[in-house]
């Protein structure tokens, strides 16, 4: 049985969350008021407030939405990764893409805003810890390596931190050319230090 | 010949710049008005405006000041690094410290603010490019490696990006324990892949 009104309500909610993330990535935290987000979503301010009574409610939901979107994106792209010797580079490239896209940009604005907003901070710290664990687990799986081997855990963590740093380096300028060389080299380093060659 | 008034003026200017950085690290860009910075520095608003007519002037000077402070800190700490097998770890630790201290925190607020402020962006992009080149050159020197060896340039760049990522990971929570394990492992990876063992 279809429930057209409920469908419409869900579609409105999703449009608001997508607009919230876009507003964050483009305008930053201060510029992303409920009114601005509602206008971008083509939704009346009243309807927006029906879904999200306060700005904190809107962005707490947007934080969850970013997390879910990152998860979906990662799952979809994981299936397309090549096997064989090119795999490591493709995995590193995919991990780095997570941190250089618009979702990371939005997340970065949230993190910085959260340094001076206790409520936002609590929800983000909890979410980031969960996402961090997921990304770590996924990286281990995609690279086909085992955490019980000494050094593997820290090398994979370092890879995620490097990806985060590359995301930051891409914030104000287009860093894609420099980044490509680093990804190439990092894949070589991983193959040499994780004994990942045995996988291919 | 002493010039007490000029000395006082210089001291006031420096106090304003230090307060600007502290305000940024603690309150973020929006909270760091000229009035707030002047109050923290114990300077009248009029005196602050004599030195820095606009907020943009104040923070452009603060950006320069952050750059100079990072340079001084790095120079001072470079001299204290051990030689021998512990050197690589000490160098990585020093590089990571640059990106996890209050100066990086202040810089991060400026970067994010600069995504929606054209004037700030221009001065920061130029400054960051200069600092990036300096840090890269310094890292090569401290590690005792030569960029003409294939892969060395990208590995050193990856090290700086990882340090930046660790700085970001430290923004909302104390990440020092996890970080120590990554620094240990990264030093091993550098020793294995840069052929840095020949140095010791």
Automatic annotation (TrEMBL), chains A, B:
Molecular-function annotations in GO: DNA-binding transcription factor activity; transcription cis-regulatory region binding
What are the protein's UniProt keywords?
A: DNA-binding
User: Matching Gene3D superfamilies, A to Z?
Assistant: Tetracycline Repressor, domain 2
Where in the numbering of this chain does the HTH tetR-type domain appear?
10-70
Q: Does the keyword DNA-binding apply?
A: yes
- Supply the name of the protein: Transcriptional regulator, TetR family
Taxonomic placement: Bacteria, Bacillati, Actinomycetota, Actinomycetes, Pseudonocardiales
Give the annotated DNA-binding region, as residue ranges.
Answer: 33-52
* InterPro entries linked: Homeodomain-like_sf (IPR009057), HTH-type_TetR-like_transc_reg (IPR050109), HTH_TetR (IPR001647)
Domain of life, per lineage: Bacteria
Identify the species of origin. Answer: Kibdelosporangium aridum
